[in-house]
């Protein structure tokens, strides 16, 4: 009898090391790209806290250890982002950095596109300001 085990997106992306790499590249692009200055300005000078939170969130969101929930409780992402004025431009800047980071990750093209679309929907949900 064979066991039917579903591979999680967390496993497909490469687990903890890959997510840490994705987060590092994401924040590299946020720091480096002039086009991302708007969202960079929303963050503290020291990005270590943001890096940790994004890593922990993505770990659980992709089906791995639910590190964010264990430490901070339910993500309530929209509520946690209310203090920040997030419009379509901020969403697009965030996605620019994430897309560049995703493009550097070694993964199946269809899987990358699925992750990209899911993150785009999530980022759109964070919009709380009109242009």
UniProtKB/TrEMBL annotation:
Pfam families linked to this entry: Bac_globin
Gene3D superfamilies (UniProt xref): Globins
Keyword Transmembrane listed: no
SUPFAM superfamilies xrefs: Globin-like
Superkingdom as given in the UniProt entry: Bacteria
Keyword terms of this UniProt record: Heme, Iron, Metal-binding, Transport
Keyword Phosphoprotein on entry: no
Membrane-crossing residue ranges in chain numbering: none
Molecular function (Gene Ontology), one example: oxygen binding
Record family assignment: Belongs to the truncated hemoglobin family. Group II subfamily.
PANTHER family (alphabetical): TWO-ON-TWO HEMOGLOBIN-3
Name of the protein described by the UniProt record: Hemoglobin
Organism: Methylobacter tundripaludum
């Amino acid at each position: 009898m064979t066991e039917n085990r579903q591979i999680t997106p967390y496993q497909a992306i490469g687990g903890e090391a890959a997510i840490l790499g994705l987060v590092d590249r994401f924040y590299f692009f946020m720091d480096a790209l002039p086009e991302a200055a708007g969202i960079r300005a929303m963050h503290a000078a020291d990005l270590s806290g943001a890096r940790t939170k994004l890593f922990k969130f993505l770990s659980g969101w992709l089906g791995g250890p639910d590190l964010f929930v264990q430490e901070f409780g339910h993500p309530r992402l929209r509520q946690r982002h209310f203090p920040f004025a997030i419009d379509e431009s901020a969403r697009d800047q965030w996605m620019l950095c994430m897309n560049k980071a995703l493009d550097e990750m070694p993964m199946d093209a269809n899987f990358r596109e699925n992750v990209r679309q899911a993150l785009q929907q999530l980022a759109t949900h964070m919009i709380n300001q009109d242009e």
